[in-house]
Amino acid sequence: MPRFAANLSMLYPEHAFLDRFEAAARDGFEAVEYLFPYEHKAGELAARLKANGLQQVLFNAPPGNWDGAERGLACLPGREEEFRAGIVTALRYAETLACPRIHVMAGLVPEGQERDELRATYVTNVRWAAVEAAKQGINLLLEPINTRDIPRFFLNRQDDAHALVGEIGAVNVQVQMDLYHCQIVEGDVAMKIREYLPSGRVGHFQIAGVPQRHEPDLGELNHDYLFGVIDEVSAACSWEGWVGCEYRPARGAQAGGTSRGLEWLRRWRSAARP
Question: DSSP character for 155?
């Protein structure tokens, strides 16, 4: 069965962030991801991981001014120095957390500019980051994100992401395939899994129900079927990555809301047992 990681930025909002590690472990998760670690000391996060028997499998590099609506720096000319400093910080955290993957957010296309004008900056920045990450054995992930959730985001489609990975030409740069974003932008999700997973360029999956970004058993996608596709293709191509549960629990911050909404996971685990 796919290996699922709890996204602690979205799951368990009924708990303070540092308490979400224990909550995830109680629900049987063996790994976690989240957006950003930088409000906490790396050593404190590492201690939470160790205390709860969890692996850190993904987090994001610094995105610029998040509260000011920035969503990454990689595509932005003139911000190269800040981008590089952010990568250095992310790699320092990754070393302490033993995290093998960092998502590098592409950023927003500035008003009055076109994507093609930013492509060279993006490729140059990610190539530089890939060299630095390779020194620690870390993979960098590029994620296409839908423009309904993040208008003007630089990278939106799977084919564009894979083309960029090819152009960047670094073996430690891969695609973060979020099935929620893929369904909103492109659809045909199962066939895209079959097309791209055997390529070796998919480093991580994420899931959420479409369109409201709740539990994966809510909405228009048949995730049980898609998990079966991931299992089938993974077995054929020896893929051993993780599926991040990056969704907002439908019960929100109600006590125990996240755990009650994990019936989809309990059902899948039960079906997968011999």
Answer: -
As given in the structure block, the two tokens for residue 88 are 């250095």
Note whether residue 212 is domain-resident: no
> What is the count of structural domains for the chain?
1
Residue 64 lies in a domain: yes
Note if 22 is an active site residue: no
| Catalytic residue chosen out of the listed positions 14, 33, 215, 246 | 246
Residue with tokens 């809510």: 218
Query: pTM of the full predicted structure?
Result: 0.96
Question: Residue 70 belongs to what domain range?
Answer: 15-206
Q: Quick check: is 143 catalytic?
A: yes
Alpha-carbon gap, residue 227 to 224, rounded angstroms? 5
**Cα 157 to Cα 185: distance, rounded to the nearest angstrom:** 7
**Model confidence over 20-69: pLDDT tens digits?**
999 999 999 999 999 999 999 999 999 999 999 999 999 999 999 999 99
CB-based burial of residue 194 (10 Å sphere; 0-12 exposed, 13-18 middle, 19+ buried)? middle
Q: What is the CATH number of the domain that holds 60?
A: 3.20.20.150
Terminal-to-terminal C-alpha distance of the chain: 11
